Amino acid sequence: MRLGRTLPHLSKLFEEGNKVNKVVSIEIASQVFWIDEDAYQTLKDYLKQIRQQLASEEFADDIFSDIELRVAELLYGLRSDEKKAVTRTQINEVIEQVGFINGEISDEEIPRRAYRDQQNKILAGVCSGLSQRLRVPAFILRVIFLALSVVFGLGVVLYLIFWISLSKNTSRADALSAQGKRPTASEITQIKPAKESPLFQVQRVIFLPFSILGALLTVFTNHFKKRKQGYFMIIKNLFAIGLVLLSLLLFSGIYEFNRNQLFSDFTAWILSGGVIYLIVVGLMVYIREYYLPKPVRPVDKKLKRGALVPVTMIIAATIYLNYTHKEHAHELVDKTFNLQSSQLTLAFVEHDEMNDYAGTVRYRIKTHKDGEQQVNLAINYSSNGITQESARENIKAVDYFYTFDKDVLKLDHYWNLKQDALRRGQDIEVTIEVPQGITLNSRWPLVVKHDNDGYQYYTRYYWSKSKEEVSYLSSGEYLHEIGETYRNKLSDNERQVLNDKFCEEFFISESWGCPTNIRNSVTDNYRFDRAFMNDSQGIDQIREFLQPDRSLFVSNLTEIERLINEISIEYAVKGEFHSYVEHLIAIKAQDDISLSLADR
């Protein structure tokens, strides 16, 4: 069994010194050692004798290379250099430990070492290597790892840990260490290439996917080893591009960091300078290390050590910033305005994009049932601070403007911080409650969303300056787009509510499953409520009307209502889906009458 590769033989490279105290530099098993001339001659004679004793061996070259490797391992432990060369006494000690081919085989056992067995491997040789160390059949270990993989991937994690931790058994000396035997020359000679047992062939079939994976990994590993320089160049250049892009991103982040007023101007500029220092030093080190020719003047160690200062400052600033956000406070301000007509206009003030504002205001619109022509404005201010008191003080640093005049509610798109105030997580959310039965005009389109408080509408801001005003009819808890565009078909918001109620009625799932429920046939959907199985054909016809790639007209609503009435299950109370369909038909009829009167 060949466990290692052919290694370089002992070769004399050059000699230094004089006749009195001559030191020789030798290379053995790809390692360079400094050795006295007498010791060199002793070692040379020893290896020559080993070569003669192996003359009749079938695998003489491989065995000699493994013995040579064992000698190199022992010499490496002596840590020789030009000033402290290996002596003849030390060489004799090494020879005594390795011994000769015809030496006695000792029964002494040494602590077993674990390696990855490359001869009997399925994937990476972990199990076959551990089997020698633990004296357990490799098949049992493979089954254990496979069983543990079912337990949250534990087997995979353990296998990867052993894969990374264990070395390959690349020589006969490694194989002897795995068996608990001392790697002497006589023991190394006794190891012969082993033949694969029929049981191992059966295991290869049982673990065939892993055998294929192991073979592919071996091919890819060899491929990368042969072309590692080319791949290193690609990775090096990609990493350099990543560093440049990261640097540009950090420079952009520095601008936003100073604009957000997290610290005082002086502190912000100090931290920004520290980040710039790290960027410059990092790029300088990387370029000098991987792109400039050698030898090159290295980056001054003082510059590298100086990077610890900005790193410490940034870490301290981050800790302090988290400390200033420890407590959270909010303040709710309620305002009420009386409408003089049945129309309300929402006018959102958009500022010059070059101005620096602290943040945008989030708006949501809902209806109320008070029966009065009132508009309720709920402004929720929130902020963080070291204490509750400081968090409330930070709320006072917020400026936000709104006005109500002649049924026009003018709202600021932004809120900003007062002069010299610092950003501490300040935010504003505004809830506008409008009465039912009025017309709502908005410069920003509204998007419907469903939450614990029912259906609410959120503003959708576009950067385009040419936005047309959209009109809505407030009816029940809904806002319906009205006008010529929506005269005979449903808007996106109306379709969204209709889809939600359809899914809630006929499917058992959360709202996230609704898009799938709409697209797939009810007979193929495991979320379909089996209580409606007898009416699945009619419900599937309704589902076809709700497909996202087709328009939904008022005439389709009439057909949907007919299909609902044909459902065999009798409700004690009319279902929400049916009620909303009737609601939509009534709204569209009302809008149609209004537009007809306007045309006259």
From TrEMBL:
Coiled-coil ranges from the UniProt annotation: none
Residues passing through the membrane, by range: 139-164, 205-224, 231-254, 266-287, 307-323
One Pfam family, short name: Toast-rack_PspC-Cterm
Protein name in UniProt: PspC domain-containing protein
Topology of the protein relative to the lipid bilayer: Single-pass membrane protein
PspC-related ToastRack domain sequence ranges: 351-460
Source species, domain of life: Bacteria
InterPro entries, alphabetized: Phageshock_PspC_N, PspC, PspC-rel_ToastRack
All residue ranges annotated as the Phage shock protein PspC N-terminal domain in the record: 112-166
Keyword Membrane assigned: yes
Keyword Membrane: yes
Keywords: Cell membrane, Membrane, Transmembrane, Transmembrane helix
UniProt-annotated location(s): Cell membrane
One GO cellular component term noted in the UniProt record for this chain: plasma membrane
Organism from which the protein derives: Aliikangiella marina
